[in-house]
Amino acid sequence: MSHRSRVKAQSVDIRPLAWLAGLAVATALLLQVSVAHGREAPAGFADLAEKLLPAVVNISTTQTIKNPERVPEMPQFPPGSPFEDFFKEFFERQMRPDSSPKRATSLGSGFIIDASGFVVTNAHVIADADEITVTLHDDTAYKATLVGRDSKTDLAVLKFDPGKKALTAVPFGNSDVARVGDWVVAIGNPFGLGGTVTAGIVSARARDINAGPYDDFLQTDASINRGNSGGPMFNLAGEVIGINTAIFSPSGGSIGIGFAIPSSLAKPVVEDLKKHGKTRRGWLGVRIQSLDQELAESLGLPDSKGALVSSLNAGGPASKSTIKPQDVILKFDGREVTEMRKLPRIVAETPIGKKVTVEVWRDGKRTTAEVVVGELPEEPEEVAKGPEKGQAPAAGQSVAGTGLVVAAVTPQLRERFGLDEDVKGVVVTEVKDGPAMEKGMKPGDVIIEAANKPVRTPGDLAKAVEAAKAASQKFLLLRVENPQALRYVALPLAEGKKK
């Protein structure tokens, strides 16, 4: 065999090796990108925990509670009974009311956002506290004062004077870019065991747990227990993307379902509390309700997305615009309103005084309105009157096919159901089994419109029902008012006459 032949026989095709080398380089780059964005499982959390622990504080509060002056009544005995002296002595010795005040304590968590001593926590952690103590990771304790609290988002800002002590502060991150499955680290003070680190993932986003009007919680399986409230949830970059607030637990302990206020909601609230001691929110001045499929169909909407305007606040920003009841708000300042509960948060986050475009559905088509966002006023607590128990249903006229019994408004019905003097319509006096009951209508509801026409007598409502059936409509759109709310109801109808 010639030398050339031996060389040829020993040569190797290097193209597969080059491809494998390229794949290895690409994989390494992808891993670097994944780690940078917090997608790859870390080897451990020790370095991150060591860096963040000094910024997390334990919060303890004390509250003075005075015992009620409660004296049980002594049993009555016949005069001269031998038990009379015995019980009198017993009650004076054992049942004497203790008027000395008691001190209740509670524990929570928080985190330092400014080296000058500003701390963020939950509002419920410091509620009704007479004294607030902030304890650092090195067990140094300071008395803190309340800068401001916001009950709607359950956030509070505290301030303490660290003197010459150098503090570790942590920044807010962007919770909007956090994805389900991302790693997170929670640090807090569960059951008073300070400096506890747990880890998990973002389990879900945009959870509504009926805690407030702006619910948009991050859900996590990182272990969160009592005492973690107010503590931070970190991403792997060491940024706060959530404030741990609540858990779902039948037993009271962690079962892997915890909820955190997202930083995108918390950050502007915290800034307002720091600067003004209160939260300043945008205000549209409308009462809204969610859409179901029946309401959407009644309004000619292709789906049930949006927020239905049921009424306008007198003197509010919307009342000074072209927005009107029965409009369905689809977009606000360029942001989609996919469901009713998103609108309050979108409006609240809009700068006060900004002129915005609102896209609405009206009369079967899209149109726009412009409104100048106002400042949300403090809402006075209203106590709504209602029907008294045990009252017999008032007489009225039954409306066939609806389950409703209605009557004209009278002074007696106004007083019975707590209706305003200027309310006009027909009062629901009884709801029988049928479509109205399925839609949640109750005695005391006032039907003021049917098919966008005023209702003043039971006959008006009966005619509207018959007209809708004759037109083969599946639903009759009612506008219903009671002392709690003004809303629209798509009342299902029995199959009408065919044209």
Automatic annotation (TrEMBL):
Give the source's domain of life in one word: Bacteria
Domain named PDZ: residues: 278-364
Top enzyme class: hydrolase
Q: Where in or outside the cell?
A: Periplasm
Keyword annotations from UniProtKB, A to Z: Hydrolase, Periplasm, Protease, Repeat, Serine protease, Signal, Stress response
| Similarity annotation | Belongs to the peptidase S1C family.
UniProt-recorded name of the protein: Probable periplasmic serine endoprotease DegP-like
Specify the species. Magnetospirillum moscoviense
Taxonomic placement: Bacteria, Pseudomonadati, Pseudomonadota, Alphaproteobacteria, Rhodospirillales
